[in-house]
UniProtKB/TrEMBL annotation:
The chain crosses the membrane at residues 20-40, 52-78, 99-126, 132-155, 167-186, 218-243. This is Transport permease protein. Keywords: Cell membrane, Membrane, Transmembrane, Transmembrane helix, Transport. Signal peptide: none annotated. It is found in: Cell membrane; Membrane. It comes from the Bacteria. It comes from Paracidobacterium acidisoli. Residues 20-246 form the ABC transmembrane type-2 domain. GO terms for molecular function: ABC-type transporter activity. Pfam families: ABC2_membrane. It is a multi-pass membrane protein. GO terms for cellular component: ATP-binding cassette (ABC) transporter complex. Belongs to the ABC-2 integral membrane protein family.
Amino acid sequence: MGAIYILWLREMKRYIRSRVQIVVSLGQPALYLLALGFGFGPVFQKAGEGSYLQFMAPGVIGMTVLFSSIFSGIAMLWDRQFGFLKETLVAPVPRIQIMIGRTLGGATVAMIQGVLILVICLVAGFRPQHWIAVPAAFVFVMMIAVVFAALGTGIGSIIKDMQGFQLIMNFLVMPIFFLSGALYPLKNLPRVLTWITNADPLSYGVDGLRGVLTGLWAFPYALDVAVLCGLAAVFLTMGAWLFSRIQL
């Protein structure tokens, strides 16, 4: 457990010391929130759907957590290039503990980012239906962070160059985000698109966030929790197996 804590603490210190990273990582979600939230607000209201800011704010929080957690795998590539990964792998510590420590560190950073963008949403005018729902939303933020941090760690274990990782992320992260229902309702979609959105892991995280914060549900609450917990177990297992097979 000591190795897990040390690696988790390392990720925390790296994040806290990089103030530029904190500011820059909040720029894109804030742009989506302000440009789309207020830009498409009148169109959304004319369609009888209410406030678009209220609708998309949980999606922007989910996007922030997705990007922060899955891109935590990039840190593994830097550690591989500068030799730190080799030092940790040759240490007398089980690799599963190294993987868990890195994954939990990336997930914690993503959760902090999610909380910061929630504050920005509140400043912009978003209001949850009940303030007591905020702790419940944090549970979904945590599950999203763990799921995609584990996925990012798994992908970072098999990719050896930065260009390859960025290419895979662009073909993976953006479709996951845009097909999750973060920016539009999942009802009345074409059948094929409905199947794709139902297969998107982030759809259940965004739906859980939106449901507890605004009361709008696309899936049952139990289904959202079950899918995210199941995916967390699958991705953690897969990430642990891939990390154990790293060859330096």
